[in-house]
Design a protein that fits this description.
Blueprint: H1 10-24, H2 44-58, H3 75-86
Helix pairs in contact: 1-2, 1-3
Length: 89
């Protein structure tokens, strides 16, 4: 399934991030988008799998400096990263 950049909004992107989190680590999905991945139980291997899935889903390639915790720390921070740097139309 590819992502339609015409339908870009925070809610839609966050829903996709949560969906991919559920695929990678079903026990990690929380109602709080600000809960850190570490607190949600996503280890570094699952985080890298999530990054790969995010890149595939949104048809982007994260820059190396965007692989830092401030960008990939929680569903909310990933959503902000995607909207601010990759999904602008």
């Amino acid at each position: 399934m590819s992502f339609d950049t015409k339908m870009v909004d925070r809610h839609t992107v966050l829903a996709q991030v949560n969906h991919l989190m559920k695929e990678v680590a079903p026990q990690s999905v929380q109602d709080n988008p600000n809960l850190s991945f570490l607190e949600a139980g996503i280890d570094s291997m699952k985080l890298m799998l999530l990054v790969t899935r995010l890149e595939d889903q949104f048809q982007v390639e994260f820059q190396t400096d965007h692989l830092a915790p401030q960008f990939l720390g929680s569903p909310a921070s990933v959503t902000a990263l995607l909207l601010d740097h990759y999904l602008t139309v």
